[in-house]
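Figure-free illustration: sequence to structure, shown twice.
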Amino acid sequence: MSKITRYSIFLLILIAGLSSCLKDILNEPIHKANLSFSGRVIDDAGHGISGAKVRAGGDVVTTNANGNFALNNLLLDARDAKIFVTKIGYFEFSRAYMVESNSTQDITIQLIEKNLTNTIDASSGGTVEIPGGAKLIFPANAIITETGQPYNGNLRVFATYLNPTDPNLNLYMPGDLRGIDNSGNEMALRTYGMIGVELEDNGGQKLRIAQGKTVAIRLPIAPSQTKSAPTTIPLWHYDLDRARWIEEGSLQRNGDEYVGTVSHFSFWNADVSFNLIELSGKVYIEDDQHPYVGARIQLTMTSDSSSSSAKTDASGCFKGGVPEGETFIMEILDKCGNVIYTETIGPFDQNTMLPPIILPDAGPNQISFTGVLLDCDSFPVSNGYVTIQMDNQSWKAFTDINGVFNIRDVRCDTTMTEAILTGFDLSGMLQSAPDTVSVPPDSIDFGYITVCDTLNEFVSYTLDNVDYVLVDPSAGIDSITGMFTYITGSNSQTNISLSFKNNNQTGTYPMSNFWVGTLNVSQPPTGLSTAVDTIAPSVGDIIEGDFSGTFLDVFGTTHTITGHYRAKRDY
């Protein structure tokens, strides 16, 4: 059985290059990058999570019914592009990416459900066994409230163990295995196991370990790591806001487990650290004009069979950190897991860009869609796009000047199926009726598609005398926070997100939060309001209204906006 060890070699999804020393990074100027995040938030069964809040920079969006989200036209630190995801009932998630400008980061994030592991008496303490083999040992009278008062009631422990040999660890672990050591250096980490812990009373109020007290932790050593596991291993806690692991203490090996104590709870990680060099490259299909998007690049070290992987971005790029002086088997896998390219590379003693890799096709399961959008007068729709929903996936393609759209991707199911096709004319604010079409396993030409119906869901607005139309927005109502309404729309050029507290009633209300495009809006956005014309008592109902006013960005510049939204409630 091959050993799978979680290094941070190519750990992150695309463009996740690591650097070995934070001090060196701090001496360099901060470079901003224009980029977009798009992707899906899922649970441990792979189902989309609706209503999760996804934040990057000053922009916040909410996942739709399928867990999908998009954050476009962001201006973030190229070495530290952070994304945050929250959803009630799950552990909070954050991660930092190193990105290239004008890139789209296509990511999948799996949230960890916050399940009650055990309830013990805080006054007497006790042992909590975490599924997977980890343990927490609480001493007596070691817990206080958030305000610092001693707590002696029921202690509800929510805990999770993260197996370092799980091949899907990249999907759900916090951060990217970059850590700050005791000397302030930024290091890459190799994990030997993680735990996440939160403490609450019966009413859901947060609790914490009292000052001067500690809780013992025990982490199992995975069988494939027993030979390499050191006697003493550094311990790191996760800083959610910084999206970094911070060195704090150590654990001692006792047989096939690590033991030690912690003085506070978040996520804790047992890791050794090492230096990296950067390895990058590009993957194309047929020629150097067609980037392979979403291909999985997997590297396996020949010295100990440790491996990890990344995905190519919208430009076919990949970039990551690898240990110096090692040789790797590089495999490229399509979305169905088929290995379509293999090469031995390395060793490397300096930052390296590999020669372009040009594949003859996208793999044995390649599929292509093509067609033409026409308006009501049979003229090409040059400012439009199509969406195709099939096999629980969604594709989008914009038209060219002749109204032509093309999609080339990989489909793992080789049987006949049905797809729902919808065309959109952004200039005319029109759409086609959703059309269900039988699709063969390889390719289909949809022919001419007429776009004549009134647009059903959209956010249209005029910002500083420039018009925008965003189709198929996400909308929802969060009763936990006091009946706030959230509406988010985006496309490849811009995005908008607004929220207001209207208790799901019609009327005029001030805007609570507002983001648009790349503007860094001063919050709260005083001067903006919305007139809600139609409310949505249930999921699937339409929310409709207008918004207008002026707002300031953080530089003191005044902007004017008027707009209209019509969106189906997703949650």
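We now fold a second protein in the same way, so the two outputs can be compared directly.
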Amino acid sequence: MHWIKLFVSEVEALQFFEKQKFFTLGVNDQKVCIARFGASFYGFKSRCPHAGVSLSEGYINDNLEVVCPLHGYRFSLLDGREVSGHNCHLPIYPIEIRSDGVFLGWY
């Protein structure tokens, strides 16, 4: 796994985000969303695997699920599974907070 530095510190990352806000970055010709929920950070593919729309237009609910803005599909930010019964999976990327910054794990 390759680690990409997103922020120089956890404090910088916390200040950058508002609660439940996303930002998108390009990694190897793919778009990845980074989201904050409370004091935790989550990384996931930016496009819904069902309809291809940008998940950054959706929101994160209280069950730690990103909700697609088009059809309301809900994907767990812990494992990427679609939780409302549909057979699709959202790629999830680990986020690590270290003493030297906040990093995204890339495969």
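Summary for the second example: The CA atoms of residues 27 and 106 lie 8 Å apart.
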